[in-house]
Design brief:
Layout (H helix, E strand, L loop, with lengths): L7 H7 L15 H11 L11 E6 L2 H19 L12 H20 L5 E8 L3 H6 L1 H17 L2 E2 L10 H8 L6 E11 L13 H4 L6
Antiparallel strand pairs: 1-2, 2-4, 3-4
Length: 212
């Protein structure tokens, strides 16, 4: 399929966490997923060694089982002080966070309905080494998401499923002792492609010149 007409800056600034605008009714062709993975494999990796991998789940029963686990973990998060929908004093910020919370709530309930789930993993000789190599899989997953956006696909970076990581590993046959799950994302075509940059601090609010 033709790529969206986005220049590099537009691609980088409009690759959003897509939740409520995921189209659960359209299957994602395997070839598109392969294209995204091929691009992801060009990301930086420690010592130029490929230790990252991608577990793609399309079988309905497995997706629903992962969705059920995610729903339970999300309920714990929603009851915690870290929940995006908590009350804030800044009214403009509160309104933005309320929108984020509604979107996150939706994914919390419907993750398993996505036509594909993608879990980015890192492999090592043991679990400790696999965890130490997370710096390789994280940029690869971001590259996967950028490639997906360019193809009209939506993703959402999540990791809270790791609270039940061993159960997901057992469900999917992932060797828990040597393979660490880093990121879980839905993958689906988006309803529209007109995503905009998010509200963020000005650069000088986060840059520390020469020293902290």
């Amino acid at each position: 399929m033709a790529l969206l007409p986005l220049d590099p800056d537009q691609l980088l600034t409009t690759t959003r966490a897509v939740r409520r605008r995921l189209d659960f009714s359209r299957p994602v062709p395997a070839e598109l997923i392969r294209e995204c993975v091929a691009i992801a494999l060009q990301a930086p990796s420690a010592s130029n060694v490929v230790t990252m991998g991608f577990v793609v789940v399309t079988e309905a029963a497995k997706r629903q089982a992962i969705g059920a686990l995610y729903r339970e973990v999300y309920a714990v998060y929603k009851a915690s002080p870290a929940y995006a929908g908590r009350q804030l004093q800044d009214q403009e910020r509160a309104a933005q966070q309320a929108r984020v919370a509604r979107s996150a709530d939706y994914l919390g309930e419907h993750l398993g309905e996505s036509p594909a789930l993608v879990i980015a993993v890192n492999q090592g000789s043991d679990r400790e080494q696999a965890l130490a190599g997370m710096g390789s899989v994280l940029p690869a997953m971001w590259s996967f998401m950028l490639a997906a956006r360019a193809r009209g696909l939506g993703t959402a970076w999540t990791s809270m499923h790791r609270a039940r990581e061993q159960e997901v590993a057992e469900l999917l046959g992932i060797p828990y002792d040597t393979v660490v799950q880093a990121v879980l994302s839905p993958l689906a075509f988006t309803k529209g492609t007109d995503f905009q940059p998010a509200r963020r601090p000005e650069p000088d609010e986060v840059i520390h010149w020469e020293a902290w």
